[in-house]
Amino acid sequence: MALLTEPQVADLEQTVQRIRRSVEEHSRWFEGALPLIASENLLSPYAKELLISDFHSRYAEGLPGERYYEGNHWVDEVERECLRLARELFRCNFADVRPISGTVANLAVLKAMAEPGMRIGSCRLAEGAHISSAGFGAFGLRSVKPVYYAFDTEEMQLDVDATKRILTTERPPLALFGLSLFLFPFPLKELQETLRDIGALGWYDGAHVLGLIASGVFQDPLHEGCAVLSGSTHKTLPGPQHGILLSDSEDAELKKHLTSAAFPGVTSNHHLNEMAALAVSLAEHLAFGKDYARATVANAKALGAALHQRGFQVLCAHKGFTESHQVAVRMEAEGGGDAVAKRLESARIVANKNLLPGDKSPNHPQGIRLGTQELTRVGMGPSEMDAVAELMDALLHKGKSPEEVGNRVLELKKNFTKVRYCFAAGEAAYRYYHLVGAPGG
After folding, report:
1. pTM of the shown model
2. Whole-number pLDDT of residue 120
């Protein structure tokens, strides 16, 4: 390749500056927005600092003390702490923090516990399942076949009796319980005897509700019949974008298979900076998670009620709307989920279109999904959830312009720009939308 000329180098430097400005503009815009994406959250200042540490530049294949690279003395120290904190937080005897995302964690479970062609119990996408359980996702990569449970769309919950009959007839060796639209705990205790009778292992994908599980405010799948809990670590557990595997099984072979599936099965180096940030996030969740989880669920219930009072078609009004961080709203009368999500964004309210039972197209679903975990993280409570519902009502029902509503969003958000439920790291570091966001930065 020929050497670049000085003008070409200058053009590339300008490109770099444009990239940086775009990131800065993104950060500034979100500082004045209401993020309601149910799969996002904010790192604490201490955790965020570790993402730009030298850990980012290093490799540590293998387990602590059994690495394939040298120079890992302090990495081993941090990872041992991370594993200890994970076991304590989730009250279990096994953890592996090497998967680099929730989907990679799911791939590890499939590699450890499923053979190609195996049938696995699961929900359908339109009933809230995650894309990793679809044929075009992780299920397809492992060539496994779903056995669909019976789902009560009015209750947004499994039909227990019908699901028992399906399990007894189809006898899948592995039963997955996990959703992307996740309003209520699964009836694991009610299904445990059936799973035991057919010899099926339970697997729980807790990506969305991992922080709620850890804090004891949702359900405890590892002690309600599931052998494995997988998940991502950046939703209701407010850590870095990473993955985790957990188990409280006494089956040494199962844990051996999970360990080898994580590495060398589906990961090489496991992003050590994220692992360190996860260790901090686990410690903070042990300290503050119960209060945070309770506030998150209370806010979701308050948001559902406030929207319902304003005429929105919120799912499951008859059972309190939700027991998680999520609220699901059917937006057919307002123009459909896709159009509504775009209109909300124009007024600085960030949500996502979402499949609801009965929808046929993922590109044009009738629903939106809202999550309260990020607004709770910056200190909002039920009164602010009422204000959020009022802003949505003004935009979608009362004909107010996106500019007017957006200005009201700015006014509401200006008092909520600091991360809560974490260890303090200096006033300057608290502002979570800063580009770097390291303590003292």
Report:
1. 0.94
2. 94
